[in-house]
Amino acid sequence: MSSVTDGDWTNKLCGFGCDGAAVMLGKKNGVVAKFLERQPCLVGVHCFAHRLELSFKDALKQVKIFGEADRFLLNLYLFYHNSSLNRSMLKRSCQAYATPACVPTRVGGTRWLPHMKRALDNLWKLYPALVEHLQQLPHQKGASNDALDVVSVLSVLSLGIQSNATTLGDMFQKIQNTVAALRKHTTRDGPMLQKISNEKKFDSKSLKTFETSRPVVIEKLEESMDNRFSCQVEAVEATQIANFKLWPSEIEEDHGDIEVDVLMKQFDGILRDQGVDVTLIADEWTMLQCVLYKRYNGKLSEASWVQVNESYKTDFPNILDLIDLILTLPVQSAECERVFSHMKLVKTDWRSKLGSEPLSDQIMVILNTDDVLSYDPLPAVHLWNSSCLKPRRPSTKPYGKRAEPTGAESMDLNLSLSDSDNISIFTSDSEIDDIET
Known about the structure:
Shape: globular
Largest sheet: 2 strands, parallel
Strand order of the largest sheet: 1-2
Helix content: 55-70%
Number of strands: 4
Order of helices and strands: EHHEHHHHHHHEEHHHHHHHHHHHH
Oligomer: single chain
Strand content: under 5%
């Protein structure tokens, strides 16, 4: 902290997202406490994705059957992960049952709920092949089905939290929607359980019946989520005014006034340092609501703050500066977890001398590049081919001048080049355009 002395970065610091470790959120010597010494207006946000994981683990500790299902998935993964023979035999069973060849995935060493959902999905896909290979695989009606139904609901929330487009104001509605969906599962079977609820066999295997623990699981899970997501910082709850979906259908005289006052009090120092007239924020908030209700005619769910900023930035600059500030508050720290995962994949034992700057550049490319399936490589090929002083020769080795091939070697080289359909040497952009046409 003491080494960072250049610039006025502390005057612009408004939020800090992290996990719940003591080194981060410790009241005396945590990172947030150190930041608060320099910027009292800072809001420390405990990552919502981590909170959801902790809520699920808290519920698992209180429900025996879910703990057994978690251990079963881990043991099943280790059984095939540690033996190539078991994997090959499982693949043969998959071929016999015409099911996709895959292996059980790990849940014990992963952090996010979508990983557990993937493990449960693979279990159901491989179920016939697993029974064939192991000769006996206990199956109890409701155990894995209930787990998959509950985890499916929670994984949707987890993916929503990890999205960079999710704001702090959106989180409270997402949590309420998830709790409402879980409550329905207490009295109604989920999609996976409905598939076999009226059958006595699954894949020609007899099913055992027992009293489901689903209501207990959901009750404990709801208690854990309420405990973990309870907000102790008023400014965090006040960010809900930035969510248009939570606005009333018709204009209300005092809607959001209390929340605006809480946010003004919390970020007063930052706003004044950036030239915002704090005294005009309350009046601009009231006028902005009148304009937006008239413009969208009650359909505020279609509005976005990007459109509002473009249209009314000059009319209501102070309240929009406050809205921009709360939209930048972090929701999760999952991006940091992704950086660590990608760093392990990029800097391997074979690339141990990779410096900090090229490593950072490669990780930034990985994090900000489009998905491989939607990526168009041709612009990059054009840029690579045209940005050098002389034409590129992809088939030429980068070291020294090669010796001339002998007669036999020359004949083999010519035949290989003429017969191959996969070798293309681009020397200019015009040749690439000709190949495309």
